[in-house]
Fold each of these.
Amino acid sequence: MPTIRDLTVAIRQRPGIEAVVVLGRDGLLIDSQCSVALNPEDLAARVPGIVASADDIGDSSGQGMMRTALIEQQNGYAIVSCVGDDALICVLTSPAADLGSLLYDVRRHRESIARLF
C-alpha cells in the first residue's frame, strides 16, 4: 500500500508542481515535498484559514463545505483540497502547470488519499 510520502513525491514529480504540503486540519505539517524555497510548516499553518473562510462562504451560500479551492496568484496557483475528515493537501504550481489534470486527479483519488491517514 502506498504511503503519504509516496503521494507527495508522485505529485511533486509532475511538471509545474513546485510544492506539495499535506497537513492536518489543525495546521500541523504531516509531509511535504518542495522545490521552491519556502517553509512548509509556515505554509501549513496558514492553510486552515483558507478552508475556514471557504466554509463560511459555502455556509452562507447554502453550497456546503469546501472540498477544493483554486487560488490564482501573481506567479502561480495554490490548490487546497480536503482529503478526509482530518487532512488537507496544498499544492503550489507554476503558471504553466496542467491544472485540469491535477484537479481531476485530486478529485478522483480523494477517497484513496484519505485512506492513507
Amino acid sequence: MTVPISSLGASSTTDTSALAGQAVLGKDDFLRILVAQLRNQDPMSPMEGTEFATQLAQFSSVEQLIQLGEQMKLSAAGTTELKLTAQTTLGASMVGRDVLLNGNTVAVEAGVSSRVVVELPSTAKDVTIRVLGPDGKEVMTQSFSNLAAGRRTLGLDTDNLAPGNYTYDVVAKDASDKVITATPFSIGRVEGMAFRGGTISLRVNGTLVPMLDVVEVMADSGTTTGVPTTQEQTTP
C-alpha cells in the first residue's frame, strides 16, 4: 500500500535534522511524487477519494505559498530599487547646498566665517564654544549671551585658524549659572554624492557621510557658506 504524502511531515526529529541544509522540494517535485504515488498504488487497495482530494489540496497550498514567496521577493526588490532611486534624486538635489548634520565638527575656510548650530532646551544666559584641534586641544574659545531656546546658528571668528576640519564642544548656562544640555550640530556644503554598499553617501567638507545624518537642508544663500547673525533661529 502506498504512503500518503501527508505522512512525509510526520518524520522523526532525526530525519528532519538529516534534511537540514538540503534543497526544499518545489511544486514540480511535489507533483511528480503525487503522480508516482498514483501509478504505484496497490490495485487491490486503491487510494480513497478523500485522501486523494486532501493531497491535491496540499499541492494547491504549496503552489500558492511558492507564488506568494516569489511575489514578496519581487515586491522587496522593487521597494529597494524605488528607495535607492528616491535617495539618488534627493542626494543630487543637495549638491551645492549647505546642510545641517548630526555631529560636532566645524569647517574652517580661509577668509570665511565658520558656523555651528546648537540646540538649547531653554534660554541660555551664557554659551561658550570651544574649538578643538586634531589633538583634542583647545585652539580658540568664543562666547555668546542671552540665546533663546531652540536651534541657534552661531558665527565663529576663525580667521586665525588654519583651514581644515575641527571639532567643538559647547557649555551653556542658564540665568542661575546652572549648566543646561545643548545639542551640537555641524554645517557643511555638499560637494558630491557617492554610492556605498547600496546606500547613498554625501561628500560634505571633504568627508563622506551617510545621507541619513542630514538633519536639515538649509536655504540657498547664494554664497560660499553664508554668515548669519548669532541670534538667528532656524526651524526647531
